Structure formats: structure tokens, C-alpha cells
Amino acid sequence: MRVLAAMSGGVDSSVAAARAVDAGHDVVGVHLALSTAPGALRTGSRGCCSREDASDARRVADVLGIPFYVWDFADRFKDDVIDEFVDAYAAGETPNPCLTCNEKIKFSALAQKAAALGFDALATGHYARLDDGELRRAVDEDKDQSYVLAVLTADQLSRAMFPVGDTPKGEIRAEAARRGLAVAEKPDSHDICFIPTGDTRAFLGANIGIRPGAVVDADTGDRLADHDGVHGFTIGQRKGLGIEAPASDGRPRYVTEIDPDSGTVTVGSAARLDVWSITAHRPVWTAGTAPDGPFEAMVQVRAHGGLAPVVATPAVRDGRPVIEIALRTPLTGVAKGQAAVLYLPDSEQGDLVLGSGRILATDSDPASGVRPDPVASGRNA
Lowest mean pLDDT: which of 9-18, 159-168, 241-250, 353-362? Predict the structure, then answer.
């Protein structure tokens, strides 16, 4: 096969490209220039897409003996990822830009260009596995990235390759060292790649501006503090609320609700963070079609953690498809804009990704969770 290997300049994508070469594929490496003003160097483990990263990727390609190119996707990245990220925070949501990047850049814009150039598959260094076209968790659960890949359609998955998903991260580094790849000990990227300082609030403030509002108490309605914009808050946040005095009971307060229209940020006790049901829109089913009725699964609402057993039901609300998710046990800190990813547990082959949706609404009423009469378990796809 002709394989386009997306090479970020990190150890994972480098070994992924090397394994694609070992498998006998005709491999071409490509580095995506995603910043309109890339820095010369990375800031430790923060940021990516610097000139240093591009140079690291090129050196790996030279070692592997494959052609290498740098493709400029900066404008598309700004429009589809950065602007959407800013808009979502301004609307009181908490988005995951890595998920958006996979959905709109790597497996959409890049994959489309690859197909147009005659490539059969796109290989990346993501930690996930494909089993007969089905997306599963990686062997290394601590590094698993199936959550941020759950937005991929069946067609996109059919053209994807994840060569490192069957190997723990430590072994990937050891393999890179054996191959003589200089990136073997390169630090992993953390935080948001287009905010190399790590200061998300400052980045959002610079892009959104001051939009003053109030922090109010969920129980009394009292105004506790003023703020410069809802973009500085997320559901479940405890620190940085600007509140001078503790609650009357001495317990910590958390952000429990964000109203972008009025600019009101509501804070309350930890008990107010419990969520018993979730409505997710923009559903994507990795099998290509929605299940034909309610089914039991596990839902994950954050890239790491936030996992609970549920009964999920494909439905239609206000004329658009959604997933109604009733939880068996509550989750806390569930924010609009996050992804709700549904898994079918499988201890032998690794959890299977069934589908995903963007969280549109939540309900804290225990009655909205799973009723005592559970639906028959199993996958009705």
C-alpha cells in the first residue's frame, strides 16, 4: 500500500512511520505546519509544530530512507480548530481541541489530500488499535487515545493505521533508540499545542476580550465576586473563582453552571456536580450506522477518566439526531462541549469504541438516570 505517515517530530509518530516501512508499505512522511508563526524551539514538553519539530521529523525520515514533505495547514487549523476552541469557551463550553483536530484536520483535510494524491492509508502515532475496521483502546491504557479518535467515521477508520497502539509507551521509546532515532527520549507534548505558555485563560482573554459578569451562590443567589468573562471557568472548577470568603459550612465551592448570555457563573457544593443523564449531539457511530435501540455501554467524558456504566439510546431531538445517555452511577464535572464516548467493555480484545457525541445538556436529577428495570445488555448495532 501507499501510506502517508503523519510525522509530528515526536517518538510515537516516528516509530509508527518506521513500522509502516517495516511492513513493506510505500511510505511518504509529511509534517503539518499548523502555526502561522511557528517558534524555532519547543518550550519543554509544551507546544508542538515548531521548526524544531519539523527538523526532527525530517531527520527521522532520512534515517528511514523515505521521502518527506512539510504541508502548510495553518489557515485551516486556525479556522477549524483554534477559532472553534475560542468560540466554544465564549459560549460557556469546555471543548477538546485534539478531538477537533482529528475530526477536521488529520482525518479530514489531510486524509482527503492523501486520497487525492493516491495514498491508500494515513498512519499516525496515536495510541489506539484497529481490529477489522473497529476502533479499540490501546494496549497501554495510560496512553490510550481512542477517546480523541472516536469522532472518526467508519470510512475514515478504513483508511487509518495506528501502528503503535499494540505496544506500551516504554517499549516504543526503547524501539526508537534501537533504530537510532534521535527523538527516542524527546518529551511528550502536554497541554494545548497552540498555547505553548500553558496559560489557557490568558490566551482566551486575549482572543475574546473582557466580558464582565458575576459569580453567584447556587443556594442563596448572592453575588460573591465579579469576573472578566465566562471563558475563565469550566464546570467542576474549584480554584481561581475570585471568591474571598469560604462557604458558610466551610466546604469548598465548585463551578456548577455557566450562563454565557448573562455572564453568570454559579458555584455550589460538590453534590451539585453529580450528573445522572447526558444528551449528546453530532453523533458519530464507528460502525457506520446507529444502533437500532437502547444498549448498555460505558461512557467516557474526558480524555482521561470520567467513566461510568450507562444505557444509551439513539434519538431525535428538535429534528436532529442525538444520543440520550442514562447513567447507572453519577459522574461529576461534566461540561457542555466535551465528548461523550461510548465503549463496549472487552477485557480480552480491548474496549471497543461504539460511537461518540458532543455533550449538549446534562441533568442532575437522579430520576433521569437508569431506572431499576435495566434494558437487556448487549450491542444492538
Answer: 241-250
Confidence of residue 41 (pLDDT cuts 50, 70, 90): very low
Q: Are residues 137 and 43 in the same domain?
A: yes
Q: Which of 228, 244, 268 is the last residue of a domain?
A: 268
Binding-site residues sit at 6-13, 32, 125
List the grid coordinates of 299.
461512557
Q: What is the mean pLDDT of residues 367-379?
A: 61
Rounded to whole angstroms, the Cα distance separating 367 from 277 reads 9
Higher local confidence (pLDDT), 160 or 190: 160
Q: Is 169 inside any structural domain? A: yes
The one catalytic residue among 48, 49, 98, 101:
101
Catalytic hit among 48, 49, 98, 193: 193
Which residues are annotated as part of the binding site for ATP? Answer: 6-13, 32, 125
Mean pLDDT of 171-195: 91
* Known catalytic residue at 48: no
* CATH (domain of 96): 3.40.50.620
pLDDT tens digits, residue range 107-125? 999 999 999 999 999 999 9
Q: Does residue 156 fall inside a structural domain?
A: yes
| HEC assignment per residue over the chain | CEEEEECCCCHHHHHHHHHHHHCCCEEEEEEEECCCCCCCCCECCECCCCHHHHHHHHHHHHHHCCCEEEEECHHHHHHHHHHHHHHHHHCCCCCCHHHHHHHHHHHHHHHHHHHHCCCCEEECCCCEEEECCEEEECCCCCCCCHHHHCCCCHHHHHCEECCCCCCCHHHHHHHHHHCCCCCCCCCCCECCCCCCCCCHHHHHHHHHCCCCEEEEECCCCCEEEEECCHHHCCCCCCCCCCCCCCCCCCCCCEEEEEECCCCEEEEECHHHHEEEEEEEEEEEECCCCCCCCCEEEEEECCCCCCEEEEEEEEEEECCEEEEEEEEEEEEECCCCCCEEEEEECCCCCCCEEEEEEEEEEEECCHHHCCCCCCCCCCCCC
Residue 375 is predicted with a pLDDT of 46
Q: Write out pLDDT tens, residues 208-246.
A: 999 999 999 999 999 999 999 999 999 999 999 999 887
